[in-house]
Structures are given as structure tokens and as C-alpha cells.
Amino acid sequence: MMKRIRLCLWAVCFLAGAIGVQAADSLKVLVITGTHKYDNPAFNAMFEQLDGLDCTVKEMGKDPGALFENIEDFAYDAIVMYNFRQTLSEPHRKNFLKLLDKGVGLTVMHHAIAGFPDWIEYENIVGATYVLKEQTRDGKHYPRPTWKHDMDMNIKVEDSNHPITRGVTDFTIHDETYKGWIYHDGNHLLLSTGHELSNHQIAWTHPHPKTSVFFIQLGHDKQSYDNPSLRRLIRQGIIWTAQQKN
Ligand SMILES: [Zn+2]
After folding, report:
1. Dist CA 171 CA 47 (whole Å)
2. Over the stretch 72-90, which tens digit does the pLDDT of each residue have?
3. Of 76, 130, 143, 246, which cross-links 181 as Cys (Cβ 3.0–4.6 Å)?
């Protein structure tokens, strides 16, 4: 019953957002940043302006463990990771995983593909990783990936029937490319690009037994934060990930 009520509330939020009205009962979203520079005012403005979502941005340092010290009263329906090169202690990792098992949604954005580089389980949850130094895995050599700022990328919608891409058509965005990350099997591809300096995959969902996980590579700076297609994808992605919360 609680799940049905929450889904109804979600539908109200979604419809309210679709017509540009701030929903009274918003989904609560925790946005975690840290150890990577970004345009804070523009980033915060984007999350403040996502209709129907009550987003709290927490700028953390190297260790965001304080957010997962006590999860009994965890107040958020979804988490967005915009962190980089952070670490979590074993107890904090366990609590983070418990939140996902409770259905708290997970969106991973841009440089957070390298959010916890030493945590293989997190990589498996996201469905990819951006290795920060060259390495060999299972006999296969992976060079250090590359990136390039200020590129115009043509983005193709690979699955236009998914709730995350609803209303989004192919678009161009001024953003940063990443190339050479390790991409796992099992991802459901939502967006791609043919840009020569980028990996083909741009956004996907990755299956999780208890919650929903969405990754999007876009989102380097103000020029991408202000892109209406990116905002729509982020908003619809967060809402989709929060559906499993009960
Ligand atoms: Zn970037």
C-alpha cells in the first residue's frame, strides 16, 4: 500500500513538474559533490530549478562518510553522485549499499564515474569506471582514459521509449568528452554519440535487484547544466531511480 501511495505521489510530482508547477510533496534528493572543481552557482541553480524535486547539494571532501554514519532516518528518496576520487570506510560502504537495498535511487553524473576508484563493488553498481591510471585487468591492458573540454557533441537517443528519455530527441551539447573508460556488460543504453574523442556510450541504466541506477556522462559546466535536454534527462532520471523506494 505504501508503495502505491508513493507511486501516486510520484505521479503527482511528475505531472506537476511537466506543467511547470512546484509539487507540494517533492521527492527528496541528496546531491553529493567533492574533490573536483565545478561551477557551483550554476550547478546548484540547475538542481534548484528541477521541478518537483527537493534537492540538497552537499559539498563533501575526500570522505563523504558522515552522510552514511547513521542511515536510520535517511531523509532522501534518491542520491545523485557528482563526486570524484572519494573514499568510504567499510561501515560507510555497507550503509550506502543498505540504502540502495531499501530502494533509494542512484544517479551517477559525469566525473562521478571515478567517484570511488578503489571500490570495485561501486563500479559494478554503476556499470563502468574511468580508471585514473593505466592498468591491466584479467590480462587486458587499459591505458589511462582521455578527456577534452569544450566539445560540441551530437547526442543520439538510443531508447526513446524509456521514462528517462521521454520527450527528449537527438540533441547537441557543449560539454566535455571522455574516452577509454571500462564499460561493463548488462547496461541498457539510453544515449550515445559518434564524437571521435568520446566513448560511444553516453547514458545508460544498470540493473540492481532492489533499486534503479542511472548513469549519464554529460554535465561538465554551466554550458551543459543550462542545456534543456540535459536538465530534462537529469530530472526524469532522478525520478525514475526513486520509483523503487518503499
Ligand atoms: Zn568535467
Report:
1. 21
2. 999 999 999 999 999 999 9
3. 130
Give residue 70 CA to ligand 1 midpoint distance, Å.
Answer: 31
Q: What is the pLDDT of residue 24?
A: 36
Distance 113 CA to ligand 1 centre (A): 11
User: Going from the N-terminus, what domains does the chain have, and what CATH number goes with each?
Assistant: 2-244 (3.40.50.880)
Q: 23-59, pLDDT tens digit by residue? A: 435 899 999 999 898 899 999 999 999 999 999 999 9
- How far apart are the CA of 2 and the centre of ligand 1, in A? 39
All 3 cell numbers of residue 220?
A: 561538465
Query: Quick one: pLDDT at residue 16?
Result: 42
The per-residue DSSP string of 143-177 comes to PPPEEEEEEEEEEEES-TTSGGGTT---EEEEEEE
Instruction: Give the integer Cα–Cα distance in Å for 15 and 26.
Output: 12
Pairing of strands 27-34, 53-59: parallel
List, as ranges, residues with CB under 5 A of the ion ligand 1: 176, 220
Q: Which three cell numbers stand for residue 58?
A: 552537499
Concatenated DSSP letters for 18-75? HTT---SSPEEEEEEEESS---HHHHHHHHHTSTTEEEEEEE--S--GGGGS--TT--
Instruction: Read off the pTM.
Output: 0.89
